[in-house]
Amino acid sequence: MTMGTSHQGTLDPGRIRRLPPEVAELIAAGEVVERPASVLKELIENSLDAGATVLTVDIEGGGIDLIRVSDDGWGMTEGELAAAFERHATSKLASAEDLASIATLGFRGEALASIAAVAEVVAISRERTATRAYEVKVGPWGMRGPTVTAGPVGTTITVRQLFQTLPARRAFLRSPRSEAAACIRVVADAALGRPRVRCQLRSQGRTVLSTPGSGDLLDALAAVFGEGARVAAVEVEAPGDEVSVAGAICGPSHTLATRQGMVVFLNGRRVQQRSLVAAVEAAYRGMLEVDRHPLAVLQISCDPLAVDVNVHPTKREVRLRNEGAVFDSLQRACWQALHRAGPAHIGLEDTRPRGRGEPPPGSAGLSEGLWEDGSLPSRDGPEPHWALEGAGSWRPLGQAHNRYLVVETPRGLAILDQHAAHEKVLYERYLDDLAAGRPGVNSQGLVEPLLVELPAGCDFDPEIELELSRAGFEVGLFGERVLRCTAAPAGMPASRAEDALLDALTRREAGPAQGELHRMAALLACHSAVRFGDPLSPEETRALLASLSRTKGGITCPHGRPAVLVMEERLLLAAFHRQ
Question: Where a domain ends, among 304, 339, 374?
Answer without folding.
Answer: 339
